[in-house]
Specification:
The complex is a heterodimer of chains A (620) and B (472). Chain A is of the alpha+beta class and 620 residues long. Chain A folds into two domains: 50-243, Penicillin-binding protein 2a (Domain 2) (Alpha-Beta Complex); 247-287 and 309-612, Beta-lactamase (3-Layer(aba) Sandwich). In chain A, a hairpin with a 6-residue loop joins strand 19 (550-557) and strand 20 (564-570). The longest helix of chain A has 24 residues, at 11-34. The model of chain A is unreliable at 1-5 (pLDDT under 50). Chain B is built from 17 helices and four strands. Chain B has helices at 2-20, 35-55, 58-82, 102-118, 133-147, 151-155, 160-166, 171-190, 201-221, 226-249, 255-277, 283-306, 309-318, 330-340, 369-400, 405-429, 447-465; strands at 93-95, 98-100, 194-195, 199-200. In chain B, 43% of the residues are buried. Chain B is 67% helix and 2% strand. With 472 residues, chain B is mainly alpha-helical. In chain B, the strands form two sheets. Chain B has a two-stranded antiparallel ribbon with strand order 1-2. Classes of the chains: A alpha+beta (620), B mainly alpha (472). At the A-B interface, helix 1 and helix 2 of A face helix 7, helix 14, helix 15 and helix 16 of B.
């Protein structure tokens, strides 16, 4: 063997050791990548899977008789995945879509703007053009393979069989940034219920999205389905809702309310179901669907009549004389008066050098006629007697008792109706007056306005309607609700739980007598509501405000075994009897008889022709 | 050994088929329209070449070594002159329908020349300065290949230093190279990170490393000077500790100066004590440390000026300084994803999604290992690494049993070249080495490389078959 001066054979071991160490390091690295980290596996799926979302059908909405109110029609959204647009023939694409090149650039810029489109990613389909009709889409669909990066997304949008109940139904619109943050279900460009029932029952209506998985290569080209479609998920359609609304009554009420501002709420007392829900002025629900929706939304929102104000639950006023029956009930329950107690009225009630005015009527009167003729003096005197009664330690204590009774009827807090954005109204408490007048600074006379539903009391039309239903039930109510049934589901327990008020049933009889008297007696304030053959009970009210009074009328019928309780509220409608009372009369007749008697058609014509839209606005 | 070769080549061939396999239309593995068909043709050529090599006499290789070497060098020069620009490199020769990369054949030629030079009588790196000509044999083809703009292939020639190491090259050179790489990486990686406001972490860590190096080296080469060790250790640690305290409680200042001062003091101390006591081999230490410090301060310059922008980018991505999965880091990131998605057992042959759908660029050449990782999982990948290890270790053992130095050196050349290829290629795909485009032997598609590796290997097998008969 020929060798140099020294043999370095031992170094072969060093070299072999290097090889083995490197191999071990690499195997360790492999183990790290393949065994201990599933991050790469997920990235691989993200890489190669194209998840095509399949949108479910939104649940349909029916009225109480099964007539469909809201259903779905098919539209297409044109989506673009910016990453995959390479090689797009923009000019031909623009020609196909009939848009200009500038338009194209503007849209691309807008969807890349993260402020306008917070969910932007160049890897996922972004909304390019929304809500193309089937007809618009057909020619595009054939050519779509020529336009890399673009795809059509089938969407179903709301259609309405009758243009009614906009405020009750609410509308469906694109989700906003907050929704995206709060609910992982949504991705940018999705739709969800924005108001009304659509919003409150979003979870039931929306169903569950499904998806189809495809394999795509690095250029985004689809290379067949993933795992032969075994891992696809079918969408689950939304659940259908049956509303308690009566579509015919609703349509008629909206017709009568045309050119007026206000609210109509009708409740079935025995169930708390809302039969009619009008916020006037209203709009056609289909205006907020389709690619003109945002322009329409803006226009409606700019209206001086506050079209989007959901008046039955969002406006609140002093309930005026409609509050008197409640005062009567409390006074009876507290034993301040009995049904035979009489109070004198000399065109009003004089106290502490002031006078609360009243109209001329016979005097003194008992409770029922006082309600029928809406005597201010009666309730002022009795209420003052209660606040100052020595059986309560103080006006504060008396006030607390009074307030407990009032709130047991659902006043002063949100009733919990299944419509979005309900307002609570306001019922003052002792603290409120302590703050305003000081602890010893007030007594019955100070807060006398409360007796007749003025002063600091505020109530929503829905609360007054619910109060009327409570009277009709002689002391209990179900929380008013719009949805009667959900397909394959139960309605919320709170709508099937009976609420008893703090006033005993027996005390309701004189009150109901009074409300019946208002319709029948010569001195009654609501004679105009009378319908031949139906025992209607009613109570007018006037909500004072800076301009012309708002007129309020609540009623229920028939007197025994009542089927409907109703509240009609007309902004700047003046005295209740002028507009609110005849309107209620027609609506009751329509609901209970199914038609308007020919000899009462003149009332209908008079109401339809009345235009009260500008009354207050003109004065301003 | 031939069996091992056949296993690797066939597995490689199947993998190339898989890497180019298309979901939509499946074509035969022999179809000439796809790379696996072409690879099959190259396999046949390689097998024929292997047979020819086995028929030739061993002596012939030894005699022809220099001629082949010169011939290849000329071919490389020729290639630079005439080759068209293909993706920025001028390394391809087109002859009719075939394209050849002469660089692949320079490996065996260089190995033969090196083996012949070293096997001369009296070759000894330790004593004969003349024998450093061996370096030139390695570096000339490397330079030519760099001129073809094929950095990766050129780097392979540094693998041959491993052979020189086996034949007596001082380990200090390997140590110095390793230290230089470490200093380079640390200085670049942490260069932009501030340490207590005033110092930069990169220089601090590098200088700390150099201090440690100085102390260990001194301790190793002068292990009897116990007293000096202690003085040195104190010299290097005490001022640093004080400076650190100063940093934390008073004013921040650049710690690098403290360390530099310490180093200077330590070197002066060693120098003067050595003068007094007439100690040996101190010069090398002092020179090396000064060089190391200069190198440290030259890294920025090297990085910014010598490396090309894409290489700077790749280095930064590798070191985790920037995260750019779409551009510079795309290849490696996709490679990691596809390997990572293989899991323990893999997705099955032809069932990989990432490689089938062409997420990994260069998946049938440099990144072919991704297909293995994805389709055969941890089991398959580990098996492949094990086969390579067995293959390389076997080559080394075969080399060791050669009676003649020529065969042994050549055997080591073969082993080192294979080792370096596997080391760099897998390191790159696994994301622990920078992206350097060199093929995985027998797996990456490419006729030249397959043929080149085959020739490289079979010449050695021919020598091994003759080891008993063959003598000087």
């Amino acid at each position: 063997m020929s060798r140099g001066s020294k043999d370095y054979a031992g170094r072969s071991v060093v070299i072999i050791a290097m090889v083995v160490v490197v191999a071990l390091v690499y195997i360790g690295r492999l183990a790290h990548l393949q065994l201990f980290s599933d991050e790469y596996e997920r990235s691989a799926d993200r890489n190669a899977q194209y998840k095509k979302t399949i949108y479910p059908e939104r649940g349909l909405i029916y009225d109480r008789h099964g007539e469909v109110l809201a259903y779905n029609s098919v539209y297409y959204d044109l989506m673009v995945t910016p990453r995959e647009m390479k090689g797009l023939d923009t000019l031909s694409f623009c020609r196909q879509l009939n848009i200009t090149r500038e338009d194209f650039d503007k849209r691309m810029k807008a969807l890349r703007n993260r402020r306008l489109n917070p969910g932007y990613s160049s890897y996922t389909p972004q909304l390019f053009l929304s809500q193309l009709s089937v007809e618009q889409c057909a020619p595009l669909q054939e050519q779509l393979f020529n336009y890399p990066g673009f795809s059509l997304q089938r969407r179903s949008l709301r259609s309405y069989s009758r243009q009614v109940a906009a405020h009750a139904l609410g509308y469906v619109g694109e989700v906003n940034r907050k929704d995206l943050e709060n609910d992982a279900y949504y991705v940018a460009g999705d739709y969800s219920g924005r108001s009304g029932v659509e919003r409150m029952y979003e979870k039931q209506l929306r169903g569950e999205k499904g998806y189809e998985l495809y394999l795509r290569d690095v250029h985004g080209r689809i290379k067949g389905s993933y795992a032969n479609g075994n891992r696809d998920l079918s969408p689950v359609s939304g659940k259908d809702l049956t509303l308690s609304l009566d579509a015919d009554l609703q349509a008629y009420a909206e017709q009568l309310m045309q050119n007026k501002r206000g609210a109509v709420v009708a409740i079935e007392p025995s169930s708390g179901e809302i039969l009619c829900y009008v916020s006037a002025p209203s709009y056609q629900p289909s205006l907020l669907v389709g690619n003109q929706s945002s322009a329409n939304y803006k226009e409606l929102g700019n209206s001086p009549y506050k079209i989007f104000l959901n008046r039955p639950i969002q406006s609140f006023y002093p309930p005026g004389s409609t509050f008197k029956p409640l005062q009567g009930l409390i006074l009876l329950q507290e034993g301040i008066i009995n049904e035979h107690s009489r109070y004198a009225c000399q065109n009003g009630y004089a106290f502490a050098g002031m006078k609360l005015g009243c109209h001329s009527h016979e005097s003194p009167m008992a409770l029922a006629p006082a309600i029928s003729t809406s005597c201010n003096a009666y309730f002022a005197a009795a209420y003052r007697a209660m606040v100052d009664d020595e059986k309560y330690a103080s006006p504060q204590a008396s006030m607390a008792v009074w307030r407990n009774h009032v709130t047991s009827f659902g006043f002063g807090s949100r009733l919990g109706v299944d419509l979005a954005y309900e307002q609570p109204g306001f019922i003052p408490d002792a603290d409120f007056y302590d703050k305003r007048y000081g602890k010893r600074g007030w007594k019955g006379a100070t807060i006398i306005s409360n007796s007749i539903g003025q002063g600091e009391i505020l109530a929503t039309p829905l609360q007054i309607a619910n109060f009327c239903a409570t009277i009709a039930n002689r002391g209990w109510y179900y929380t008013p609700h719009m949805v009667k049934a959900i397909e394959g589901d139960q309605i919320d327990e709170k709508y099937t739980t009976r609420h008893r008020v703090s006033v005993d049933s027996i005390h309701f009889e004189p009150i109901i007598q009074g409300m019946r008297g208002a319709v029948t007696a010569s001195y009654g304030t609501s004679r105009g509501v009378a319908i031949p053959g139906i025992e209607v009970c009613g109570k007018t009210g006037t909500a004072q405000n800076a301009g012309v009074d708002h007129s309020i009328f609540m009623c229920f019928a028939p007197k025994d075994n009542p089927q409907i309780a109703m509240l009609v509220f007309i902004e700047n409608g003046g005295f209740g009897a002028t507009w609110a009372v005849p309107m209620a009369s027609l609506l009751l007749e329509q609901y209970l008889n199914g038609e308007i008697a020919p000899n009462r058609r003149w009332m209908e014509t008079r109401l339809l022709n009345a235009n009260l839209m500008e009354v207050e606005l003109e004065q301003e | 050994m031939i069996l091992l070769y056949l296993v690797l080549v066939c597995w490689g061939w199947m993998t190339i088929y898989s890497a180019s396999y298309n979901y939509e239309e499946s074509v035969s593995i022999f179809d000439m329209a796809i790379v696996s068909g072409k690879q099959f043709l190259w396999m046949m050529i390689s097998f024929a070449m292997a047979a020819v090599i086995m028929l030739l006499d061993v002596r012939w290789y030894q005699n022809a070594a220099n001629s082949i070497y010169i011939l290849i060098l000329l071919l490389l020069l020729f290639t630079i002159a005439v080759a068209p620009d293909v993706k920025g490199s001028r390394s391809w020769l087109f002859i009719g329908p075939f394209s050849l990369q002469p660089a692949e054949f320079a490996k065996f030629a260089t190995s033969l020349a090196l083996a012949k030079y070293i096997s001369k009588n009296g070759f000894d790196l330790k004593h004969s300065k003349r024998d450093y000509w061996a370096f030139c044999i390695i570096l000339i083809p490397a330079m030519l290949i760099i001129m073809q703009k094929e950095m990766g292939s050129a780097l392979v020639y540094f693998a041959l230093f491993l052979v020189l190491f086996r034949e007596g090259l001082t380990p200090w050179i390997l140590g110095a190279a390793f230290s230089a790489i470490l200093i380079f990486i640390v200085a670049i990686r942490f260069g932009e990170i501030a340490l207590w406001q005033a110092s930069d972490l990169g220089s601090f860590l590098s200088l700390l490393f150099i201090c440690l190096l100085l102390w260990v080296w001194f301790a190793l080469s002068n292990h009897r000077e116990k007293q000096m060790h202690i003085v040195l250790a104190l010299l290097l640690t005490v001022p640093l500790a004080l400076a650190l305290l100063c940093q934390i409680f008073w004013i921040p200042f650049n710690l690098a100066y403290v360390l530099l001062g310490e180093l200077l003091a330590a070197l002066l101390y060693i120098f003067f004590t050595a003068l007094k006591r007439q100690m040996k081999s101190i010069g090398a230490i002092i020179v090396s440390i000064v060089l190391a410090v200069s190198f440290l301060y030259a890294t920025d310059f090297l990085f910014e000026e010598v490396l090309q922008p894409h290489q700077q980018m790749r280095t930064k991505v590798l070191l985790g300084m920037i995260d750019d999965p779409n551009n510079a880091g795309y290849n490696v990131n996709q490679a990691k994803i596809s390997i990572g998605s293989g899991g323990f057992m893999g997705k099955g042959y032809l069932n990989g999604t990432q490689t089938k759908l062409k997420y990994v660029p260069e998946q049938d050449t440099d990144f072919i290992f991704c297909t293995i990782g994805e389709e055969f999982g941890f089991m398959g990948s580990t098996l492949l690494i094990a086969i390579y290890v067995y293959f390389i270790v076997r080559l080394i053992l075969l080399a060791e049993r050669q009676r003649h130095r020529f065969s042994r050196v050549y055997g080591y050349c073969v082993a080192s070249v294979f080792f370096f290829h596997v080391l760099i290629n897998l390191g790159m795909v696994l994301g622990i080495m920078p992206v350097i485009g060199i093929p995985l032997p027998f797996f990456s598609y490419g006729g030249s490389s397959l043929l080149g590796f085959t020739i490289l290997l079979f010449i050695f097998l021919r020598m091994d078959a003759d080891r008993l008969r063959f003598s000087v």
